[in-house]
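Hello,

Following up on my earlier ticket. Below are the two sequence lines again, exactly as submitted.
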Amino acid sequence: MNLSLHPLILLLLFPGGLFLLNIGMIYEWADRKLVARYQNRQGPRWFQPLADTIKLLAKEEIVPKGVHKGLFFALPIIALTGALTAGLYVPLFGFEPAFSFQGDLVVTLYLLSMMTLCMGLAGANTVSRFSLVGATRALTQMFSYEAPFLLALLGPAIAAGTWNIGEINNFAGQNLWMIIAQPIGFVVAVVGLMGKLELPPFDAPEAETEIVAGALTEYSGRGFALFRIGKDVELVIGLTLVVVFYLGGISNPIWFIVKSAGLLLVVAALQSMFARLKIDQTVGLWWRLGALMALLQLVAIILGRYLGALIR
Amino acid sequence: MSENKNNLVDQVLIKLKNWARINSPWAIHFNSGSCNGCDIEILATLTPRFDVERFGIKLQGSPRHADVLICTGPVTLQARDRLIRVYEQMPEPKFVIAVGSCALSGGVFDGCYNVIGDLNKVIPVDVYVPGCPPRPEAIIYGVVQLLEALKSGKPKEPITVTEPVPEVVLEEEI
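Thanks for your patience. The regenerated structure is below:
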């Protein structure tokens, strides 16, 4: 069964807040190390993300000319806040979510897309043409992966008959793993997660060989560090979501680590296997293939539920 | 007592910052008129064979994210303004590594009508890596030298870079 802790500890220290930041950095390291090992390299040392973050926080922050200053400083904070708030509704480490109500799945997904929205705004805020192109691409990509990702997560929600992440977690723990019942949905969800995190096959928004560094080109120092941490937190929460929905739920911390690390292994393999897609290919892939597949899965689940009820 | 404590906190903070800086030097690569020999060696340094990510070195696209400017070639008249602009776009603290004979002294291009000369005439340089072109091992050694200098805590004097550079006047045809 699920473990439970005092809400304030949940909020500030243990699965949320400080701990989530650190676990995000550990997952970033694991991701980079796995990609390096797949490429037959040694890869970074274990404290690399920590050193990167401290260095960026200690660096000078340049405010470029022509930006709206309030937005420039507020956007990284809002992005990180969105990612951390999403952590409250997710059963991290098998602990009960700090908050939960009917339909918190939708809220969590909106909070997770706050990051992309903030990056889009941050890019559009500066006058640099590279960050503008990056912002356009980030927002275009968001409009393409968001619908299939939501549809892929709706499958297990409909099967469980609830839109509450905690209840879906319980349902998944007591039944057959959804990856066996809904394999198409799992594929769409994993690839959607990679699109959400802008990992290599879908990293057109920050393609350093074309548009310098995408939407965050003009960010230096603190703002850039906050965006990076926000992305790490989002990686942990995204992995947790997919594990909860498709890999049989999380009942205790050991299962969380085993299952999410296994999923990270797959995601890192996909990252090092595929070359970057162009932005029109990304959109085409999602709308022509991803959305259709996810819809097919949904129709199959709904039909299955109806037919099952009829037969009974 | 409180002053002592403050000093201690400050010292710990400075040590922490220094540690982070030594362990995560992000680089940007700029070619200010090189023949591309050194650039290919720099790219070879970044390949999985040498794997500089194990030292935390990462190539960044944007000068705003970088700490180390790896510069190749003599500075041509055309590249001078761009070089200064890229250098000034980098946030403090920033370091410059000059790679190759031409960046050291102008090399075979020294004295050409379209060349200002070595890198030090335009921006302050921290480390010189000689060679034509230097091997990837030499470039990694140069970065390690820079990090060693940082570890010993040698303060870096701020130098303004927008001082007027002696104009090279072309002789006009009559």
